[in-house]
Amino acid sequence: MEATGGDDRERRDEISLLAEELVQLSVKGSMVVPNSKSTLICTVWTEKLYNLDSFRAHMKGMWRTRKKFEIQVAGKNLFLIIFELEEDLELILEGRPWLFRKSLILFDRLCQAMERDQIKLISSPFWIKIESCSPEFDKKDLLHAIGGTFGGALRSEVSEEFCRLRINLDVQKPLRRGIFVSTDYVSKVWILFKYENLSLFCFGCGRMGHGMINCNQIPPAKKSKVSENPPYSVALKAGSRLVGKESLKFNSLRKQTGVQSSYTGGEKKTPNIIKSVEDGYTEVEGSQENSSLTEGGR
Known about the structure:
The protein is of the alpha+beta class. It has helices at residues 2-21, 52-62, 86-94, 139-149, 220-228, 245-257; strands spanning 31-32, 38-45, 69-75, 78-83, 98-100, 103-109, 114-115, 123-130, 155-158, 163-170, 178-182, 189-192, 194-195, 272-274. It contains 6 helices and 14 strands.
């Protein structure tokens, strides 16, 4: 009887173990596969966690497409956006940069299946606004030359009040505050950059995606000192009337080293460029953490 009871217990344990082994898990594969329809792959350039339903609702409310689009989760902080119309996809790409809670959304077309760890989303087009342009420079030549330092200009616009330049920014690198430009008649003029629809960025390291509080580029021992006199400011945002301490400093160099311009009616030359010397989830609220001064974005 005891032997029989022992056999029954062993059989029950075996059955219990088999039941646990028969549990079927569902996990995402390592491949991200495009839909048969026009598809974008995107991620939010932020170090914060955010609510996925809030992201979906934000995108649905922000975009006014002709037909519906669907948002699918493709991984952690990775999404597929599937469009009924190719024209809607192109409209979204043309309207970049787009922001979610003041964090930049990075997009690319997904045309073929890719391993998730091979996906590279590190750049976005931006408009740079140059509000004051010295009369010594031909504006079109200036924009073309500046665009070359960003790997080429995507587009440029010139008006009497200001110039605009559309370029592709590597979001892993610090924002450039401006550039030195020279001609045969003027040496070392500082051209200030202002970025349209700029996302959250760090006033300490100049990189997008975090504020100074969460910056890991600045050693903790130096963070307090840097925060007292940060090298970057809200002056980088188009629409701000601030010029930034670096512009005041660099423009003072022009007064010391510049020479008077002349109008000789001669052939126009492309300016010689001198490169700048510096080269659970919680919903993201998105305020600019570096300062109480904030500006709106999409």
